[in-house]
Design a protein that fits this description.
The protein is α/β, with parallel strands linked by helices. 19% of the residues lie in helices and 29% in strands. Helix 1 packs parallel to helix 7. The N and C termini lie far apart (46 Å). Bound molecules: flavin-adenine dinucleotide (FAD). The site of flavin-adenine dinucleotide has 32 residues, from helix 1 and helix 7.
């Protein structure tokens, strides 16, 4: 009889695990369960797709017949309610039960909603799923003003999409500057002035007091009394790993599902992958981590006597919004022991000749800041033309 592999979650981590299991064990019996009524799709595209041009068929991770061809039994629109580790079964919300020999827990993350008064009012939205996307698009059709709480990449990408529809957008960020974790102060300031230059309002270092309105939201009030009227408020304030089914079954969890360097949880028959993982490599909640960990967990579920260490290189951040290219990778803060070197390139006179100019003369064509530790490149920020990112090392 073939081995039964059960994958919980049909995001990219689950999908990569299923692909790896099929590659390593052609006769495996593979089932993948997901709460969304969708095949696996490219989640990052939800905030990078023109609302008017969005077609669901363009965002799927594989062709329709991939599941059949690879003999992957995909159960869509069903929630995992319980993992019974003694019996090696998983219960779903329709009362059915699925057995496993090896299970991959890849339930991802969900949007964090901070406890702001008024957060439950109508038209206070988050973006994680295709359904959220449709909801946001529908509300955007009639809105004139939108406020984005959280000035991270996803918040900025969404603000850009709504701005293109003619909606007045305001970004409110609690940190003193934009993308504070990914960009040094100077790059952050350049980004901010670029955004304000295209008429998107941007306020940093703010503290939210409440979301105003009766049933539906009418705006955001800050602790300092300022108010920002809006028909839509989007919360883009980070994510939290989905750990409840694991925790309730007795699998060790902390912020995420705890795993060793092979992505095995505290139960040797359950591995984990994706946004829900907490292991020795800090989880950035990014696509590459989810995809590589899914592949590793799938491989290790098959090769239990010869497992592969989970290894993944840098996590570059790419912003494709606001009419600007932005790329950041590695250590990008001027802290102790790190020396930064700025250069700007202009293509204006000769398209093929990029020339270096003094830092203070930068006219914002392409801005590059390289960071060195002990004389060795350890990080880089590119703004403007980011094609050079192809030459940035995968690991520093
Ligand atoms: C709008 C947006 C833009 C992004 N842009 C980028 C980007 O530009 N670059 C980048 O690197 N990353 C980006 N990310 C992050 C990236 O998409 C995630 O890191 C990645 O999708 C995580 O994959 P995953 O499979 O671990 O989790 P998920 O994609 O969250 O998949 C988990 C699945 O499990 C399902 N599930 C949860 N609970 C249950 C349950 N009880 N029963 C059954 N199923 C359940 C969920 O519904 C979901 O379908 C973006 C994310 C979003 C939301």
């Amino acid at each position: 009889m073939s081995d039964k592999y059960l994958i919980l979650g049909s995001g990219i981590a689950g999908f990569s695990a299923a692909s790896a299991i099929r590659r390593e064990d052609p006769s495996a019996d593979i089932t993948m369960v997901g709460a969304e009524n969708e095949k696996t799709y490219l989640r990052p595209l939800l905030s990078k797709t023109d609302f008017a041009r969005f077609r669901k068929n363009n965002i799927y991770a594989a062709k329709d017949n991939w599941y059949e061809e690879n003999r992957i039994n995909l159960i869509k629109g069903r929630c995992v309610t319980e993992i019974d580790r003694d019996k090696h079964i998983v219960k779903l919300d329709d009362g059915t039960v699925r057995p496993y020999k090896k299970c991959i827990y890849a339930l991802g993350a969900s949007c964090f909603v901070p406890p702001i008064p008024g957060k439950d009012k109508k038209s206070v939205l988050t973006l994680r799923t295709v359904r959220d996307f449709h909801n946001l698009r529908r509300k955007a059709m009639t809105a004139e003003r939108a406020v984005f709480i959280g000035g991270g990449i996803i918040g900025m990408e969404m603000a850009w999409e709504l701005h293109k529809m003619g909606i007045h957008c305001t970004i409110l960020e609690a940190a003193p500057r934009l993308m504070a974790r990914q960009l040094d102060e100077e790059a952050s300031e350049r980004l901010r002035s670029h955004i304000e230059g295209i008429d998107i309002e941007c306020h940093t270092g703010v503290q939210i007091s409440e979301l105003t309105g009766e049933e539906a939201v009418t705006g955001v009030r800050l602790l300092d009394g300022r108010t920002f009227p809006a028909e839509i408020v989007v919360l883009s304030t980070g994510v939290r790993p989905v750990i409840i089914p694991a925790k309730e079954s007795g699998i060790q969890c902390d912020r995420g599902v705890l795993a060793d360097e092979y992505l095995v949880t505290s139960d040797p028959d359950i591995l984990t992958a994706g946004d829900c993982v907490q292991c020795s490599i800090p989880n950035p909640g990014l696509w590459k981590f989810a995809k590589v960990s899914g592949d590793t967990a799938g491989y290790n579920a098959v090769h239990t006597d010869d497992m592969r260490l989970f290894r993944v290189g840098n996590f570059p951040v790419i912003l494709t919004a606001m009419g600007i290219g932005l790329f950041a990778s590695g250590s990008t803060q001027e802290e102790d022991g790190i020396i930064a070197e700025v250069s700007c390139f202009s293509h204006s006179e000769d398209q093929n000749h990029m020339f270096r100019v003094n830092h203070n003369e930068c006219g914002m064509q392409t801005y590059r800041k390289s960071f060195y530790r002990d004389g060795k490149l350890c990080g880089i920020v590119l703004m403007g033309d980011i094609s050079e990112m192809r030459n940035v090392p995968v690991t520093f």
